[in-house]
């Protein structure tokens, strides 16, 4: 048996699901942090592709940013937390409370696009204004978030489909 002096320090977990307000605050903070990721990815893409106009190579840039986001999220989720999740004391684990594999994190990344793709696909044929698209997207995000109330453990449904769950993580005491 290992003594506490030689045992590796592991973060403490509380098995409960963080509240919806805290998860959505973390989600919003993550979106703010992603502005930096988008800026760096856009700069790298435009430098490598010698793109002078933002509308040139637009679809290639979108695909590049999608891949960069995937790398960002898969890397951090496989290690348990993104910076926003650390700030809000939220950790991603699998159904058994273990660290998430990169493959499972990739599956969660793909499934997490349920937050945005349905409203964007629904409004595409109607040529709506940007304001109308924002309202519809925010409405869908609110509905999707509230649907977590129907999950037995109050998890988001993309987490249930990916075999992951969000738990409260106690900060390490120093």
TrEMBL record:
The chain crosses the membrane at residues 27-48, 60-78, 126-147. Its main location: membrane. Keywords: Cell membrane, Membrane, Transmembrane, Transmembrane helix. It is found in: Cell membrane. Residues 17-163 form the RDD domain. The keyword Transmembrane helix applies. InterPro entries: Pra-immunoreactive, RDD. It is a multi-pass membrane protein. This is RDD family membrane protein YckC. It comes from Rhodoferax saidenbachensis.
């Amino acid at each position: 048996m290992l003594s506490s002096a030689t045992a590796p320090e592991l973060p403490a977990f509380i098995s409960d699901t963080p509240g919806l307000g805290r998860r959505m605050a973390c989600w919003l903070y993550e979106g703010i942090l992603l502005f930096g990721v988008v800026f760096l990815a856009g700069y790298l893409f435009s430098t490598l592709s010698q793109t002078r106009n933002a509308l040139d190579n637009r679809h290639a840039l979108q695909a590049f940013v999608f891949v960069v986001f995937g790398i960002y999220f898969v890397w951090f989720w496989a290690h348990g937390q993104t910076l926003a999740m650390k700030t809000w004391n939220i950790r991603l684990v699998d159904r058994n409370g273990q660290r998430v594999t990169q493959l499972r994190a990739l599956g969660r990344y793909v499934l997490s696009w349920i937050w945005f793709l349905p409203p964007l696909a629904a409004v595409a044929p109607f040529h709506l204004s940007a304001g109308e698209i924002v309202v519809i997207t925010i409405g869908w995000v609110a509905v999707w978030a509230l649907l977590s109330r129907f999950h037995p453990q109050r998890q988001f449904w993309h987490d249930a489909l990916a075999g992951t769950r969000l738990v409260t993580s106690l900060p390490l005491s120093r």
